[in-house]
Amino acid sequence: MDKSAITLERMRSFVRVAERGSFSAVAREQGVGQATITRHITELEGALGVTLLSRTTRRVTLTAEGTDYVDNARTILRLVDEAADDVRSAGDRLDGKIRVSCTAALGVRHVQRVLFEFQDQHPNVNIDLRLSDVQIDLVREAVDIAIRLGPLADSSMQRKPIGNSRRVLVASRAYLEEHGRPQGPDDLRHHQTIRMSNVVGSDMLVLHPQEGRPCSIPFDGRLLVDHGLAAREALIQGRGITPAHVWLVDDLLQSGAVEQVLPDYAPEPVPLSILIVPGRARIKRIRSLIDTVSDALKALPGIG
Q1: CB-facing half-sphere around the CA of 117: CA atoms within 13 A
Q2: At what angle do helices 284-298 and 64-88 cross, to 10 degrees?
Q3: Distance (Å, rounded) from C-alpha 25 to C-alpha 111?
């Protein structure tokens, strides 16, 4: 075995190909040609004397030896990163890159401002913010932390609960003046609605009264959107009634542009959490950002 050929660069390429299942994707991610990534893997396999990856025209998978090696390689790379972070981040100085994934509307309305302030305090930190309402594989996409609304299915990630995001039924003043104000849940059947297509079960609205049992109302109007900011704009334009997170519409409620509908009935709140890739919270810059974002999220309207 030629141990000198087992470099960190080659090891990183192998781990990322194992995680992404694609040589070309890792090449684009690292800003190099695919031939460079292929060479890294070939040279690492040659140094180890085993085949780590099985390649076909359609997919790349780990061999048995690759499966054994990849976890140890991740551990080694994490320790190297943590050691470098400790040196760079002496005292209060933070240095390095952080990749953050966040649901789009929350990111645009609130989270990106927190990230800007964090960078102002720590000018040597680079942030890669990825806004999407689609839940991504954090390891595959090399994301450090994700801010997510809704129930979580990925038990392999470390979870930091923030609280529940309260929602309210709202509509624009213009819409209500034209179509009338619902007096009870059953009246919603006769109104236009704005519904989120990427929320499971959004065609049935569950409302919790201040007293008594919850009630379920069909919620299937003409407008279906897949983005929180699109729902906000549709709300402003008077397209109908929608259940909205308080942090999404608090300014509109304060200005009077929109009004709360059926204030005695509340849509179900939605859990808000930060997901962290295991081991990443030990890195000082990431731990500091998690604390900063967590405090900011807890202070948002409707989070409790």
Answers
A1: 10
A2: 80
A3: 28
Average pLDDT, the chain: 90
Using an 8 Å Cβ cutoff, are 111 and 102 in contact? yes
pTM of the model: 0.79
Count Cβ neighbours within 10 Å for each residue of 187-219 and write b for 16 or more, e otherwise.
Answer: ebeebbbbbbeeeeebeebebeeeeeeeeebeb
**Sign of the CA dihedral 248, 251, 252, 253?**
positive
Length of the chain, please? Answer: 304
pLDDT digits (tens, 9 = 90+) for 171-196: 999 999 999 999 999 999 999 999 98
**Around Cβ 289, how many Cβ atoms within 10 Å?**
25
The continuous run of DSSP H or E covering 39 comes out as helix 34-48
Q: What are phi and psi of 208, to 5 degrees?
A: -110, 115
Contact 300, 247 (CB under 8 A): yes
Residue 159 amino acid letter:
R
